[in-house]
């Protein structure tokens, strides 16, 4: 190795070590600033410039700070800049003397100043570490500069402190990101344009291409020569290379052809140069665009070919027209000669003579009379009567009158009439004759007669066709072979708005809507040409510009009169049909009352939401909502009010949901809500909002009312993975929320499934409860507040289940109602209880009233009265001691039938009582019509009668109402003497409740009835 090379290597090693040392010094300085080991201690102003002194002005640290590639600041505890290096001046585009001594806030954009101030304040008060955050610095020119600020705290033993800040300029980094984004956008646009785009360098090598260019070249052209890949030729087969294209497309585009490996393309080629940004005149490449116009060129070639054929056909048509005109002239001459001959050669030539005395004869008649009228020519020479006898009776008088008129006026006689041949067929004849006056006073006609039966039949058909044509509700248009309109009917004008005179002689293209492509009409006429018929749906335009759908049938036929092809179009406006179909389609997916999606559409939305959640590992929620006690509102105020309430509820629910959510009405008062991307917490939040919103007051048809919802919630995938499962479980959870009192929401759980299984088992077992002797009747005494004695017993059903023990009626009575077993159970209760009281009466117990609850299904059964009468007859129980209790809500449905049934029950002598009175919506006018003997105050009013003034007023009102209507009043749920005193003081007739006795089995009740002391009820009576 030479000495010079050794020297160079040694120099490089020395320089490298120097740079390493300097870098270490920079790092040590930065760490010292951050740790507070370097401190700004002096700030002076000399000759309009700031000088910042460090602990040692000659220290190497100061030199490093000044030369470092990041900005450095030292600020005081008042956020005043005490020191700034030269890089800060570069970043902020300001001299140092305008920076030092100013507040740091002056160089921060206003919307970030509060954040910086809070950070600096926290550094001063609490934090001694390092804080980093990105800010927008405000340069001296006002432009934003993105930068990271690294802030450290410097403290001394005197508790004084300064803050050191390292500023890292992020402008270049941001700029590079923007350039990368622009590049990505350029690539995206290039791939999505329909034209082929090719970018070449100055030597013609392809630098970039898009998908269309790859399709045209049938290869990946990038990196290859443009001339090698795109061999373009003009219509004269001249080869165009890249240079030729650039030279010839400066002011326009070229039409060239590309012969590919497997296909041929017609292209519209354009180009532009790419010039250097820094020196615009230097060309560094080019951009070539190639637009595929193969389809357009093929269409042009087809059009040229079609035009040539049309010209040929036009020449043929001109020659045919001249020939046709000659034929028409010949026909006219022939018709003239035939008319002359026809005037002399009628079907039947005859002479008819009428004498003054009324006799008539036919001196001459041709032999055609035999074939036409079936009359022998000889038989009419002396008497023409056989001819007149052949005339239809309805036409004979008219014919005779016309003959007399012709004779008196010597006017030409013309007439038509009917005749009945020997087979009974009607034939039509036409005759005309010229009269001559004879010397003997007679009139002689010379004439002819023809059979016009076929013509009359044809005329009848024509008249019928014309009637159909003019009066058809379908539009009819007839065109000639050139598709020019020659006739339209009234319906055509009615549908399209075009009167006949505006469209005669033009084509039906005037109706074109522009909705169909040329292929549609091409295929239509091909079908007509090959099959002679086409029908289908088409969109046309009326004269007023409106577009409408029609069902069009086109028939190609031959007109024998003109020996020409004509086209008959028959169409009907199917706008209403389309609207109906759309309405049917809408009804298939939406609820007509609330306009909400129905179960079908909801199911589709749920399945889609499940598929999305599955891919994205997210959850969805299903909320099953049901209005509480909606049936009471519907029954009392009517279905119209109920429907309006449902509509208002639907609107309130919809207003709470997001765009991606779905709310559906399932029918009745049930709604299901789909919440995509929602977990249990989110669904609970929505359910709470729903409860709040729905419970707000409503004003429906001037009725002030409130409503509440019970909601069941399931979560996918926790509770199920399909719509049916999730909705079924949500339904179960909803019913559990109702059992908890309503106006609540409840999440589905496996425990609920257990409850449902219990319900199903109870529904199954209750069918055998009577036969297995599991049912028992308890009796609760009713006490007269007048006598202080037991005045009656209410029979209350109990079920001792072999597995679940004693079951509350609140649980199993609804099950019995829903399963239909309540009818059998109700009959058993009535029979058993009446027999029991008859047995007690036989032991000497005074007869007392027996109250039995009647269910809705029992009240509605058609044989209720007959069954009741049979039980009374069978048990011998006195009807006047039996009282049937019905709830107020039961009276609201099917009122007339209910009243009829109650009247029939009352006619048996059985008493009736309205249970839970005051909880429903019955009107005074309605109650007056009922054959009711007693009103029962519901225990919900009695419980708070001493604490709630409203309940006290209601109880007083019921007592007053009952007495004014001639009814007794009983209060249930009486549990303390204060309630007793209140009721007695306001005239209540009877009480029932735990104050005297809870419901007891038959044995205990018998003891109670037998105990004369207890029966005196001294406590109640004396209190």
TrEMBL record:
Its EC number is 3.1.4.52
- Top-level taxon of origin: Bacteria
Which keywords fit this entry according to its UniProt record?
c-di-GMP, Coiled coil
**What GO terms are given for molecular function?**
cyclic-guanylate-specific phosphodiesterase activity
Pfam families for this protein: EAL (PF00563), GGDEF (PF00990), PAS_3 (PF08447), PAS_9 (PF13426)
Q: Give coiled-coil spans as residue ranges.
A: 9-36, 296-327
- Could you tell me which InterPro entries the record lists for this protein? Biofilm_reg_signaling, EAL_dom, EAL_sf, GGDEF_dom, Nucleotide_cyclase, PAC, PAS, PAS-assoc_C
User: Which residues are in the PAC domain?
Assistant: 413-464, 534-586
Q: Domain EAL: where?
A: 759-1013
Q: Which GO terms describe its biological process?
A: cellular response to nitric oxide
Q: Which reaction does it catalyse?
A: 3',3'-c-di-GMP + H2O = 5'-phosphoguanylyl(3'->5')guanosine + H(+)
Boundaries of each PAS domain copy? 57-127, 334-410, 467-505
Please give the cofactor(s) recorded in the UniProt entry for this protein: Mg(2+)
User: Which Gene3D superfamilies does the entry mention?
Assistant: 3.30.70.270, EAL domain, PAS domain
Annotated GGDEF domain residues: 618-750
Q: Which NCBIfam families match?
A: GGDEF, sensory_box
This one is known as cyclic-guanylate-specific phosphodiesterase
Q: Which organism is it from?
A: Thiohalophilus thiocyanatoxydans
């Amino acid at each position: 190795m030479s000495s010079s090379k050794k020297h160079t290597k040694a120099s490089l090693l020395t320089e490298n070590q120097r740079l390493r040392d300097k870098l270490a010094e920079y790092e040590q300085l930065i760490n010292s600033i951050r740790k507070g080991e370097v401190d700004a201690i002096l700030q002076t102003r000399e000759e309009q410039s700031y000088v910042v002194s460090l602990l040692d002005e000659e220290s190497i640290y100061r030199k490093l700070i000044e030369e470092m590639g990041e900005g450095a600041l030292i600020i005081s505890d008042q956020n005043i800049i005490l020191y700034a290096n030269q890089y800060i001046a570069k970043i902020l585009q300001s001299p140092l003397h305008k920076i030092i001594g100013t507040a740091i806030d002056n160089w921060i954009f206003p919307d970030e100043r509060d954040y910086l101030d809070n950070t600096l304040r926290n550094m001063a008060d609490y934090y001694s570490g390092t804080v980093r955050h990105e800010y927008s610095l405000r340069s001296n020119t006002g432009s934003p500069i993105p930068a990271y600020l690294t802030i450290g705290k410097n403290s001394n033993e005197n508790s004084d402190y300064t803050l050191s800040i390292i500023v890292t300029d992020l402008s270049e980094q941001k700029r590079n990101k923007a350039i990368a984004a622009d590049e990505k956008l350029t690539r995206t646009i290039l791939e999505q344009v329909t034209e082929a785009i090719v970018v070449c360098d100055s030597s013609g090598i392809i630098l970039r291409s898009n998908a269309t260019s790859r399709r045209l070249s049938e290869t990946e052209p990038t990196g290859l020569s443009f001339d090698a890949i795109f061999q373009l030729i003009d219509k004269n087969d001249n080869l165009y290379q890249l240079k030729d294209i650039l030279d010839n497309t400066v002011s326009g585009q070229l039409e060239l052809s590309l012969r590919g490996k497997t296909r041929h393309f017609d292209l519209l080629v354009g180009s532009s140069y790419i010039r250097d940004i820094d020196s615009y005149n230097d060309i560094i490449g080019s951009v070539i665009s190639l637009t595929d116009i193969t389809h357009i060129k093929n269409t042009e070639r087809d059009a040229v070919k079609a035009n040539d054929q049309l010209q040929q056909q036009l020449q043929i048509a001109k020659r045919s027209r001249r020939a046709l005109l000659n034929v028409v002239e010949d026909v006219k001459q022939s018709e003239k000669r035939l008319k002359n001959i026809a005037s002399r050669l009628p079907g039947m030539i005859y002479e008819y003579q009428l004498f003054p005395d009324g006799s008539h004869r036919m001196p001459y008649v041709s032999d055609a009379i035999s074939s036409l009228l079936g009359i022998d020519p000889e038989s009419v020479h002396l008497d023409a009567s056989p001819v007149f006898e052949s005339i239809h009776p309805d036409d004979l008088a008219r014919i005779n009158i016309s003959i007399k008129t012709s004779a008196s006026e010597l006017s030409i006689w013309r007439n038509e009439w009917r005749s009945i041949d020997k087979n009974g067929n009607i034939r039509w004849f036409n005759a005309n004759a010229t009269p001559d006056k004879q010397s003997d006073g007679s009139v002689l006609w010379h004439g002819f007669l023809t059979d016009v039966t076929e013509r009359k039949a044809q005329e009848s058909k024509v008249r019928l066709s014309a009637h159909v044509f003019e009066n058809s509700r379908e539009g009819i248009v007839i065109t000639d072979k050139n598709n020019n309109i020659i006739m339209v009917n009234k319906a055509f004008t009615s549908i399209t708005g075009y009167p006949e005179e505006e469209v005669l002689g033009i084509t039906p293209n005037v109706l074109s809507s522009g909705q169909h492509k040329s292929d549609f009409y091409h295929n239509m006429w091909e079908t007509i040409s090959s099959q002679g018929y086409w029908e289908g749906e088409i969109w046309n335009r009326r004269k007023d510009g409106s577009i409408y759908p029609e069902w069009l049938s086109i028939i190609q036929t031959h007109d024998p009169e003109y020996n020409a092809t004509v086209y008959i179009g028959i169409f009907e406006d199917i706008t209403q049909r389309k609207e109906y179909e759309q309405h049917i389609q809408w009804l298939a997916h939406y609820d007509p009352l609330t306009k909400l999606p129905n179960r079908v559409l909801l199911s589709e939305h749920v399945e889609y939401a499940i598929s999305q959640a599955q891919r994205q590992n997210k959850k969805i929620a299903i909320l099953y909502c049901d209005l509480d006690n909606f049936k009471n509102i519907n029954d009392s105020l009517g279905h119209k009010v109920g429907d309006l309430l449902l509509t208002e509820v639907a609107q309130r629910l919809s207003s709470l949901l997001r765009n991606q959510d779905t709310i559906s009405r399932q029918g009745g008062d049930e709604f299901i809500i789909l919440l995509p991307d929602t977990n249990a917490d989110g669904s609970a939040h929505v359910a709470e909002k729903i409860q709040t919103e729905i419970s707000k007051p409503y004003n429906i048809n001037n009725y002030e009312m409130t409503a509440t919802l019970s909601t069941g919630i399931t979560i996918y995938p926790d509770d199920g993975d399909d719509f049916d499962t999730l909705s079924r479980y949500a339904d179960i959870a909803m019913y559990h929320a109702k059992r908890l009192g309503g106006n609540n929401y409840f999440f589905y759980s496996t425990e609920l499934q257990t409850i449902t299984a219990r319900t199903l088992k109870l529904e199954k077992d209750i069918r055998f409860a009577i036969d297995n002797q599991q049912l028992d009747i308890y009796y609760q005494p009713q006490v007269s507040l007048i006598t202080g004695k037991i005045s009656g017993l209410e029979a209350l059903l109990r079920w001792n289940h072999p597995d679940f023990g004693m079951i509350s009626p609140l649980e199993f009575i609804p099950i019995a109602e829903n399963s239909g077993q309540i009818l059998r159970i109700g009959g058993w209760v009535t029979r058993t209880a009446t027999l029991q009281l008859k047995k007690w009466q036989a032991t000497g117990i005074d007869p007392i009233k027996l109250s039995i609850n009647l269910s809705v299904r029992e009240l509605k059964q058609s044989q209720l009265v007959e069954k009741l009468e049979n039980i009374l007859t069978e048990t011998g129980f006195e009807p006047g001691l039996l009282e049937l209790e019905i709830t107020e809500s039961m009276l609201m449905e099917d009122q007339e039938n209910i009243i009829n049934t109650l009247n029939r029950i009352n006619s048996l002598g059985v008493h009736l009582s309205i249970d839970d009175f005051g909880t429903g919506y019955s009107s005074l006018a309605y109650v007056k019509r009922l054959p009711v003997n007693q009103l029962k105050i519901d225990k919900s009013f009695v419980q708070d009668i001493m604490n709630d003034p409203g309940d006290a007023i209601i109880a007083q009102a019921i007592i007053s109402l009952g007495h004014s209507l001639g009814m007794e009043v009983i209060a249930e749920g009486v549990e303390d003497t204060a309630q007793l005193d209140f009721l007695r003081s306001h005239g209540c007739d009877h009480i029932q409740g735990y104050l005297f006795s809870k419901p007891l089995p038959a044995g205990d009740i018998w003891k109670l009835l037998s105990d004369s002391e207890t029966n005196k009820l001294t406590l109640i009576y004396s209190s």
